[in-house]
Amino acid sequence: MKKQTIAYLAISIGLLIILFVVTMLRQQLPFWDEAYYLENLVLLENLGFTREFLLAYKGPAGPTYAWIHYILSPLTNLQTPYVRIVNTIFLALTVFVIYLTARTIDPSSKNNEVIALSAMSIPTVYTIAGMALTEMFSVFFLSVFIYLITYVYVKRKNLWILAVVAGIALSLAILGRQPLLMVLLALPIFFVSYEKKVILNQPFKRYGLFIGVTVLAALILPIFVFSIWGNIQPAAEASTGVGFEPKHLVLALGYSALHLCFINPTYFNFSKDISSWFELAGVLVVSVILNVFLLKVSFNPFAVIVSKILPEDLMSLYSIACGSLLASLGILFLYYFLKKQLTSYDKMSAFLSLGFLLIIATSIKVTHQFSARYVAQAFPLLILAAHYKREKLKTIHIITLVIGGILGMISLDNYFVD
After folding, report:
1. E strand residue ranges, 81-216
2. Membrane spanning segments where (predicted)?
3. Per-residue buried b or exposed e for 125-148, using 16+ beta carbons within 10 Å of the residue's own CB
């Protein structure tokens, strides 16, 4: 094992351990979204999993969060820091499942552990794994679904029990964070035919039946819950609002670009991926024009910290500058990510990338407030897509891991300081 690989594994595992220790040391009572969603445990205790519970349910995210905490309540007593450490443990489980998926895709690779642990380079992951928030459970169940879909596709073993398990896993993911429903729309990519290129690893004949059983198993419970709500979220908590908010989609794409830079900074090889500098300039000019005249994206990363450094009259300029930069990154990311992934003519690669983009595309319907957590909930797909073509581990990967880890810990700490 090379020194760089050893260093990456040591640092990433160290970051996970530090996150665990820091989370255990956080004794503050539940606050912000934590307290809000934990109130549903009282409803579940009093009403059980009934129609009345679902109608009284608080928050736009689904009831998976309440179910998991209810099951684990004998161990956590619904007290801090134990309700928070559950999310950290689920992060570790998610990393392990991503490792299994990466190993299934390429058993000969020596970097499968690195791929899985690159999750620790994503700053937003520290927030959803270090607080008692709703995303981490859904991320875990999404990763299980991805693993089983990948396992059957690569191993060409049509085991019906795996179809049912994959469907149940995805249904729990959907009922935790409803946007994950969109990953189902990426499944048909396995059956798209390309005339000019040979698709790697064609699906075997009965894979369609496997997918059909999986989809059926995935939708039964969500349809039951959504039918009671009359919507995909409780009517009283319709946070997505009415209409569309394009700037939130651009923000989601911008965060995706940043996450990709942390996960795999060598993903884009500009000498190969860019046809010409005129192409890059054209995409960049279009993105700037869209933001200046139409989107007008503003963005305040680490606002509390920066506000202590910059004068108040400069904060608006800081917001505009960061917004323009993030919007440009987002549009550039969309263009080149699609170009690189969908022209690889590999169906698994196309599924991973399309599934990720479809999930974050739901940000356009979030009209009340944008959060980077909307992007983080799909991070297993982005990690596997970003590392699909295995590359040598370089020093820059270690640097982005350290930077991402530091930013993640600072961001998490910022919630508790506030």
Report:
1. none
2. 7-25, 82-102, 114-131, 137-154, 159-175, 181-200, 207-229, 249-270, 277-295, 315-338, 350-366, 395-417
3. bbbbbbbbbbbbbbbbbbbbbbbb
> How many helices (H) and strands (E) are present in the chain, helices listed first?
19, 0
3-class DSSP state for residue 200?
strand
Per the DSSP assignment, residues forming a β-bridge with 236 are none
Is-cis flag, bond preceding 81, omega within 30? Answer: yes
154-187: per-residue pLDDT in tens? 887 777 899 999 999 999 999 999 999 999 999 9
Task: Please count the CA atoms within 13 angstroms of the CA of 372 that sit on its side-chain side.
Answer: 22
pTM of structure:
0.90
Distances (CA, A) of 30 to 24, 73, 77, 387: 13, 15, 13, 36
SS3 string of 215-252? HHHHHHHHHHHHHHHCCCCCHHHCCCCCCCCHHHHHHH
Which stretch of 4-18, 23-37, 161-175, 372-386 has the lowest confidence by average pLDDT?
23-37
Structure-token pair, residue 254: 């911008």
Asked whether residue 19 carries a pLDDT value surpassing 70, the answer given is yes
